[in-house]
Amino acid sequence: MMDNLESLSPNQRFALNVCIPLVYFLALMVAWVAPKYFGFGFRPLVYIGLSSGLTGLLLWFLAMFYLGNSLNVLPSLPGRHKVVTSGIYKYLRHPLYVGITLTLFGLFLACGSLAGMIYLFIIVIPLNLLRARLEEKALARQFGQTYLIYKKRTLF
Description:
Blueprint: H1 10-33, H2 43-67, H3 95-111, H4 114-143, H5 145-153
Helix pairs in contact: 1-3, 1-4, 2-3, 3-4, 4-5
């Protein structure tokens, strides 16, 4: 993927707006159709997975709530007028990506889905790390020192 998202055409931006959420949807489809061995044969893992998944969902929804109109699939799209530093963003720069990862991890753990775990570690986590890196570059360009100070105060 390019480091300069501003150079993308409207069609390329639209494709990324559709493709990135589709990757998360495909992870759910993997969990649905792949063989399941609940908790990998260890029942407490089902409850740990469900707890992790619910925690991830809560984090995911809180992130979307606090982002409000600043929520974009691409960081270079209009809507980012300020650095969001309230709520969960006071502690984490990327709670949305952490929430997505925890949700999928919990789901795959509870289902005992080896295919899901592989998909998570090979596709979803690298995608989230790449998106976070690109987003941070765009925000540092747009907000300069304000964002860099915020970045030093927060965790991933």
